[in-house]
Amino acid sequence: MCPVRFLLKNDQSATIRTMQLNDLAAIDAMHDRLSKQSLYKRYFVSYKPSLATLREQMQLSLHRGAALVATLDSAPDEIIGMAYYLLIPDDVGVAEPAFLVEDRFQGQGLGSALFYYLTQEALSQALRGFRLFILLENQRMLRILDQKTFPTERHYRDGMYEVRLDFQVAANDFMTGE
Fold first, then answer.
1. How far is CA 109 from CA 25, 31, 66, in A?
2. CATH architecture for segment(s) 4-127
3. Using CA atoms, how far apart are residues 52 and 46, in angstroms rounded to an integer?
């Protein structure tokens, strides 16, 4: 993916680009700035992943997934958000995405932008859809999903939703923004 610039709701300019191995220190530093609540919503426990775990998330080939990061244009070495997906081996053409936005940039449109560009990447790789697991209290992520035009299957169990998005039915609507 080519770097894409966009404007946050607070009028700061940001860039979304493909994650690179030299982003490891900046991603680790972003995790240090996250609240326990944000860590919990992403990892389902309040913990900071190890450098080895972060490195594994970053080393995605097209055969395993894709990963993006967001930076402020005024501080291009500081990562303020990330998104990636991992292909699900037993569900051909389906991937499980993950999103993480630094607390001070939540509610600024960054999560929606990361979702959009990660979905574009998935569509370019001819994926059929996403399967997500979202905690009930992660209302921001649920609102992002409610804004999408993909057919959605949602099941609630044990404090979380399992959500399946079908790209094939509505890919043209999504790509054109309708």
1. 24, 19, 21
2. 3-Layer(aba) Sandwich (3.40)
3. 18
Instruction: Please give the span between the terminal C-alpha atoms of the chain, in angstroms, as a whole number.
Output: 22
Domain extent listing, the chain = 4-127
Q: What is the pTM of this model?
A: 0.88
Q: Taken in order 11, 73, 23, 117, is the CA torsion positive or negative?
A: positive
Tens digits of residue pLDDT in 60-117: 665 789 999 999 999 999 999 999 999 999 988 999 999 999 999 999 999 999 999 9
How many Cβ atoms from other residues are within 10 Å of residue 7's Cβ? 13
What pLDDT score does 178 carry? 47
Buried b (16+ CB within 10 A) or exposed e, 42-52: beeeeeebeee
Question: Quick one: pLDDT at residue 169?
Answer: 64
